[in-house]
Amino acid sequence: MIKKLVIAIAMLIPSFGAGYSAFAAAPAHEQHVQANKNDKELLARLVSAEAKGEPYAGKVAVATVVLNRVDSSKFPDTVKGVIYQKGQYSPVSNGQINKPADKDSKKAVEEAINFQGQGKGSLFFFNPDKTGDQWLRQKQETIKIGNHVFAK
Fold it and tell me: Is 73 left (phi over 0), alpha (psi -120 to 50) or beta?
């Protein structure tokens, strides 16, 4: 049911289109992040701040990046550790992380948790109009959704 909904949403969002099905069709990873209520709330607040004004699929993708980082040996091994890792997310430094999450962000977090291991291994995302970080821009692009580029 949820998978059909995801596919339907992807077909309704022209800026996303087939890109989302490619993002979601990656083979599932064997490990899964165990997210408790506090992790989900924190992740939803990050998604709400980072992906405000972005398509729903972009919100799911932002949450997926955090979960992928938790699974990666290159980042902290908890949702909280990844989100609060120094210098990683501007909503942490500017206080936006403390604002309540919207309904779509909460739903996007649940969807990302249910479909963990997908997302083509994306570990980064950025808005090319808002960053000049050349290191980040040189990462291998996995997909573009709305104003964000996702990369690994």
Answer: alpha
